[in-house]
Amino acid sequence: MRNRYLDLLRALAIVRVVVYHVTGWGSLTLVFPAMSVMFALAGSLMAASLVGSGPAAVGRRLRRLLPSLWVVAVIFVPAMLLTGLPLTPAVLLWLFPVADPPANYWGALALSPIWYLRDYLWFVLASPVALWLFRRFPLPTLLAPYCLLLVIELGIYQNPPVVLRHFGLYFGAWLLGFAHQSGMLRRLSAWILVPTALTLAAVGGAWILTHQGPRGYDLNDIPLGNALWSAAFILVAMGRAPATAAWVDRSALIGRAVTVLNRRALTVYLWHMAFVVALTPLVDVVGWSHQDLLGLAVRVALVFLLVGLVTALVGWVEDVAARRRPELLPGGRRPASRPVRRHAESRAGEDHEPSAGPAAPVPRQRGRDGDVIAR
Q: Most buried residue, 141, 224, 336, 373, by CB count within 10 Å?
């Protein structure tokens, strides 16, 4: 069953990501730790897919993830090669980014959100083993990433690989998504969930206050504080997620916006930073400083406008990758048709959310199967 509350969470996270990159307001990371929320939602969906399809869900998830990246690569990689990027075998990482793909001086900033896809890819690949461990040893498995991050932050494990550091930072949120999908979070009584969330928030908040980064209290510069604060947020936001949120669709405009942002999350994520980088000097030239509210409002509006245009042009790739009928603007009315039997992943996959309650095992069946985002 589709859960519009989770759709709303993802939509808000996407908007927050774009606004943060335009404004640079670190306080937004405290108010809404969108990155970890997106990993938690993706973890819940991945667990649902594995329950329904087994290890084959890994291939399906990668099939949904990579085509939109390839569209970006087709446009940006030739441009970078023409402006100084050496042609080496490392360029092939743009096809399957298990490590950061190479970029030139301007591409490194415009395409910086690619790190999320790198982490997402690794988390998907690790999920079959992680789910097996989670089902047998739930609490130790949940705690493992946070222990890894603590060891790194205390200097016990120095100079870890970037991917391993991000496993410590974000895989805990992914595993909380497993706990949501299994119903573990919902089964926790308020006497356990609330004190746990408050404790995590207090410890994380204390660490944030005493370990400011170069941008002050921006969570992206404070890994351990980020992980703990985000875990507290996820416990509350997903642990008490309502089974439905019908009010989202009471307004046709809001309901359509939530649908579009969910169906085009990857496109918005991959393209928005390039427009942020391109518009910053242009807006300053015409006198709308990025340091005042008018300049920021203009930049936010222009970035969303340009992202909307590019989404209309190439967003349909996400439909093709998900084996849906391509649409220019998702969520419109469709002509009545005969019901089609779908694969389990279509019903509990990225666009058809599992319910907020305990997930019942989904019977395996053959057939065709039918989420993403930066700091």
A: 373
